[in-house]
Amino acid sequence: MLARDVPSAGSSAVGVRRVGVVSLGLIGGSVARRLVAQGVEVHAWNPSLPALEAAAADGVVPARTIAELCVAEPDVLLLAPPLRAMADVAREVAAHVRGGTVVTDAGSVKGAVARVVREAGLASRFVGAHPMAGTEQAGYAASDASLLDGARWALTLEDDTRLDAFCRVAELVTGPLGGVVRVTTPAVHDEAVALVSHVPHVVASELLRLVGGSDVTDLALALAAGSFRDGTRVAGTHPRRTEAMVTDNAAAVAPVLRRAAAELAALADALDAGAPVGAFFDEAAAVRAGARVAGPDDARTTLTLEESTWRAELLSRPTSLVVGADERTSAVTLTTP
Length: 337
Known about the structure:
Elements: E1 18-22, H1 26-37, E2 41-45, H2 49-57, E3 61-62, H3 66-71, E4 76-79, H4 86-96, E5 102-105, H5 110-120, E6 126-131, E7 152-156, H6 163-174, E8 180-184, H7 186-212, H8 217-223, H9 226-232, H10 239-248, H11 250-273, H12 278-290, E9 300-304, H13 310-315, E10 321-326, E11 331-335
Parallel strand pairs: 1-2, 1-4, 2-3, 4-5, 5-6, 7-8
Antiparallel strand pairs: 6-7, 9-11, 10-11
């Protein structure tokens, strides 16, 4: 559809006044902290009491159970448990969610989450989400309201994703959460994050394994500086968290690992043969130098989305960034590089 001459979609998220959070780990805790700071009413449940008590001291309304959290009828309910707990959480939420609550999540794998959400009966309320932000730390104590500043969120669409639900989550993300949105599907999301998140976690772990299995481990670690530190930072993530991430996205991760192994083997063969290897590094440098993605300061277009065409409209703009949304008018504001 064509852009219409309408005001820019708002980013104040006035329609999202109450948010629920399931699990106050690094991401769930950061979301809760930021929303409280922005004046949004936040209710939360967490499996461990100390984190819930700490969040309550920070202004979060604590819930003793997921059922109690659902009774509050938040405008948006964010599911942020570990991936291995998502199915149980989804079933519990499905048993108690009510009213007009829209359900979203923060999982790093979207295909697997979409499946368990659908199996739980939540698909009609659900919009998949993944904030590309984080650290190797975990838990509420590691969370930080500023972690999500300017974060790029993927919002994933399926054939039955509701327009009003998408706009509400996009309004929350681009409003008080201070982020921007790329719209995609679960499968395409998982293929992309395998390349830029999941495989880098594997490679970081392998670098440490190589050092640990060498004959010069002590000296290597003593000499390690910036490049090794940066290249292995994400290997500080809890091993079970990384394991869940790559196994839940195995269909996308495994082919990339095989390709990487083949290309590294070819590089090793060239080095053994004394053959030229410059192209290997030149091609990588060109990708980094040529990277250009839409930013919030690029030229803006505001679209009013129609019920019959909105998914195709947004998915046909893979390079655009959603920087504003308004559930009341079904309008989104986009930037394009």
